[in-house]
Design brief:
Chain A is of the alpha+beta class. Chain A is built from 7 helices and 23 strands. Chain B has 442 residues and is of the alpha+beta class. The longest helix of chain B is centred in the N-terminal third of the chain and has 20 residues. Classes of the chains: A alpha+beta (392), B alpha+beta (442).
């Protein structure tokens, strides 16, 4: 902001004290030189834009935007005029990525062609020990065009596109070949979530292993990302961040515990500050969270390989915080060593992926699981769902 | 009976000294500072309630705060009671608290004594009254001095301005607060001496024959003027004492208001009153750090998205949310000091998305503080008049205090008394030295 008044004042200084002139010239010249360099940088960037050098960078961004557009199309619903307009613009999902990760920040990626997903089949197998330093592996299935958010137990977050993680060799999984999203100090990678649809979500809900919950508005969450810090979401020392989900205000938020209890509440009613909302036993912890209402069924997968489904109406909404939740299976089954490893709201066309204790990774058609009630594997470590049908 | 020291608790700088009967020893209480015998009147309290002063406080503050993470939590801070003729209800009040804030930095604490309306502040879970804050600072200073002297200090002579306030009640209250803080800090005997009189006592050591001397003590918080007969200890006489609440910190605020606030959106059309209030807070070093809350960030970002002076408001956002307030005020003070030695300087602050560059000349500075100059000249002449002496009967004018180095005031003194009679004493330490003389001689 160099105004004429200021220039006049500088001239007055020189008239009153000629000795100030060299200093003033030096300061102005230095500033001019800095501004000239900065101007050149901006011009270079402008030329790069015009020549299309930035195209690659923006293509990634466009992929994310296309994905958001597709989510928007689903939110508007079928039959509307808007859908017809958006239908033509809806992007096709070229590939799907299955991620296997652990607390050390090691991540493996298996890329799948959606056309391949027509039958239940084995996918790959670990050649190394599947558990590293007692960090159990976890799964995530997402579009390859997604952006990922890595959440650490210190509350730190980092973002990277799925494509930044190299694809694993065909059929072979080995932690030694894993991509490393390096934790700092004694940090542990606790969850990964896709964030391309983040801007469409009204809320982000963070859950801890002990059933503490806080909700953040979408705009506030954006600033968390800018600061690379989202918070631990915990109040007790022994507790740890478990998961995060994006949702609308009216969505049903569901938490499932390892010992087979569920908690359901409308997202809008959840607390803004970290509060315990789900009273679970001292030996229990949360294994998964998701939002329901848009899918007709619930699927629960146990460590013994059983797949149980229920109608979504089965969920009972909690009226207060600190409820003990709904039991999913009997005490006798729990006492016999059965626990939940994965759960989600599903429909018959969805797909699931399961990682077994022997290191084998398999794909499962949900409709097959409805029929057989079993994954046919004796010990399951983790199970995830991917709603592939609505994206093709 | 333990040792007695002189302690100058200044608005910007402080110091401790002892007098052995022949020579004043200024204690190097801040070895990290460029002038070790001068310690900045800055206090940093960490989350675990450890207290740091001076340059150590500044360095720790930077180390803890620059580029740090923030996490705000909405916390209950109290309740408001509403009473009407036919209703009564209580409403909870919440505030956003940065739970990762590592510490709290405080400066210009002494200036709170002038206003009398600063009861204290909450620092994390503890409430510190103004007396507590001063006591914490004085205790740290006392401990450093005791370590250096390897002897415990029992008594102190503290300096005080001629007038903390024009209001007699507030003036007494300020001295009582300072006395209480000194007792709280562990001093068993506490006495006071006027700061310009203390400076005069130090100057007197250099005199070979009696003189009528005007002390012009111009520091960070006040301007004090004393006219005394010095040089004959049995016939020392104070002719007049006067003071005015204008000093270095007022000049800093003026520079910010007149020259730097446009960088943050002042004068921009279209800003609503809420945003203007934020812009106006830039000159208030107490208010600015408290603005870094999520609602204010949201308000600023919404205005930026709406295209309301986006560059200026982004600059304001960066200042508030990157803990740059201290660097900013420091930069302004440094520029002011630089202008005492040269005709032009640059006030600059570059951080992410912030680029402040303001070429500032001595001519501009003198224009900006013209109003203060007029008032100071008036008070000076009033004091001489009250002393009963003629201008020609003043043998020497002794300048002390950081602001006395500003050329405009040296020139003003030269114009009134003649340049040959204007002398400089030790700018930062003459008051401390004089207090040490008073502490020993009583």
């Amino acid at each position: 902001m160099i105004t004429q008044d200021k220039i006049d004042e500088w001239i007055r200084e020189v008239e009153e004290r000629p000795a100030s002139a060299p200093n003033i010239i030096r300061y102005i010249a230095r500033r001019l030189s800095d501004l000239t360099s900065r101007n050149e940088e901006l011009l270079n960037e402008n030329i790069a834009l015009r020549l299309g050098k930035k195209v690659e960078e923006y293509e990634t961004r466009i992929a994310s935007l296309e994905y958001q557009l597709e989510i928007l199309r689903r939110q508007i619903g079928s039959g509307s005029a808007a859908e017809a307009i958006l239908e033509s613009a809806a992007p096709a999902i070229h590939s799907v990525s299955l991620l296997i990760y652990n607390g050390l920040g090691q991540i493996l990626r298996v890329e799948l062609d959606p056309a391949e997903l027509v039958e239940t089949k084995p996918l790959a197998k670990f050649v190394s020990d599947v558990n590293v330093q007692s960090f159990p592996p976890r799964l995530l299935v997402t579009s390859t065009q997604e952006e990922l958010l890595f959440v650490f137990d210190s509350g730190r977050v980092a973002a990277a596109p799925v494509t930044a993680i190299p694809s694993a060799s065909q059929g072979v999984l080995d932690w030694e070949q894993a991509f490393l999203q390096e934790p700092r100090g004694s940090e542990e990678l606790v969850t990964i979530l896709p964030i391309a649809k983040m801007t469409l979500a009204e809320l982000c809900i963070q859950t801890s292993r002990r059933g503490y919950v806080k909700k953040m508005s979408g705009s506030f969450f954006e600033s968390c990302l800018t600061n690379s810090y989202v918070g631990t979401g915990t109040k007790q020392k022994q507790d740890k961040t478990c998961s995060m989900v994006f949702c609308g205000k009216n969505d049903l938020f569901v938490m499932i515990s390892k010992e087979g209890r569920s908690f359901t509440m409308e997202a809008n009613k959840l607390p803004i500050t970290i509060e315990p909302v789900f009273r679970i036993s001292a030996t229990d912890h949360i294994v998964t969270t998701f939002t329901g209402r848009r899918k007709p069924y619930l699927l629960f997968v146990t460590n013994t390989g059983k797949a149980v489904y229920r109608d979504i109406q089965w969920l009972e909404q909690a009226n207060t915080f600190r409820t003990q939740g709904q039991p999913i299976f009997s005490k006798a089954r729990r006492d016999s060593g059965t626990w939940i490893v994965g759960s989600a709201a599903v429909d018959e066309k969805d797909w699931g992926a399961a990682l077994a204790a022997d290191g084998s990774l398999g794909l499962y058609r949900v409709s097959d699981l409805f029929e057989t009630g079993s994954l046919g594997v004796s010990e399951i470590l983790d199970f995830v769902i991917y709603g592939i049908e609505s994206r093709s | 009976m333990g040792l007695k020291v002189g302690l100058d608790f200044g608005t910007s700088n402080s110091g401790v000294a002892v007098f052995d009967g022949h020579e004043v020893h200024l204690l190097p209480v801040d070895r990290l500072n460029t002038l070790p015998e001068v310690v900045k009147s800055i206090l940093y309290i960490t989350r675990d309630y450890k207290h740091y002063i001076g340059q150590e406080a500044v360095e720790l503050y930077y180390r803890h705060n620059v580029g740090r993470l923030r996490r705000f939590e909405k916390q209950w801070v109290g309740e408001l009671e509403y009473r009407g003729s036919d209703m009564y209800y209580v409403r909870d009040v919440y505030a956003y608290v940065d739970v990762l804030k590592p510490g709290r930095l405080m400066q210009l604490i002494k200036s709170a004594l002038r206003t009398g309306n600063y009861p204290g502040t909450q620092v994390f879970e503890r409430y510190y009254t103004l007396t507590d804050l001063i006591a914490v600072y004085l205790r740290a200073l006392k401990e450093r001095a005791e370590t250096m002297l390897a002897e415990s200090i029992s008594g102190v002579t503290l300096g005080r301005p001629v007038k903390f306030s024009e209001n007699m009640h507030l003036d007494r209250k300020a001295e009582d607060t300072l006395r209480q803080a000194a007792y709280q800090a562990g001093f068993q005997q506490v006495s006071f001496e006027l700061e310009p009189v203390a400076a005069a006592l130090f100057y007197e050591l250099s005199l070979e024959q009696p003189q009528n001397v005007l002390i012009f003590d111009f520091g960070g918080g006040t301007l004090d003027i004393t006219i005394m007969r010095l040089g004959d200890q049995r016939n020392r006489k104070v002719y007049a004492n006067n003071g005015i609440g204008i000093a270095g910190s007022d000049f800093d605020r003026t520079i910010i208001e007149k020259r730097l606030m446009p960088h943050f959106g002042k004068g921009q059309a279209g800003l609503d009153p809420d945003l203007l209030e934020l812009v106006n807070a830039v000159s208030d070093w107490v208010a600015l750090p408290e603005l870094s809350t999520p609602p204010i960030k949201f308000k600023l970002e919404r205005a930026i998205r709406e295209g309301l002076a986006p560059v200026r408001l982004k600059t304001l956002e960066t200042l508030i949310f990157n803990d740059l307030a201290f660097s900013f005020y420091n930069g302004v003070e440094s520029a002011k000091i630089t202008l005492s030695g040269q005709g032009a300087t640059v006030i600059g602050l570059q951080a992410n998305k912030m680029d402040i560059w303001e070429l500032y000349t001595r001519y501009q500075f003198e224009q900006d503080i013209r109003e203060y100059q007029v008032k100071i000249r008036e008070v000076l002449l009033q004091t001489v008049s009250a002393s009963g002496l003629e201008l020609e009967q003043i043998d020497a004018v002794v300048k002390t205090g950081g602001s006395s180095s500003i050329p405009a005031f040296s020139e003003m003194l030269g114009d009134i008394f003649g340049p040959e009679r204007v002398k400089s004493s030790d700018v930062f330490s003459s008051v401390t030295a004089g207090l040490a003389i008073r502490a020993r001689n009583g």
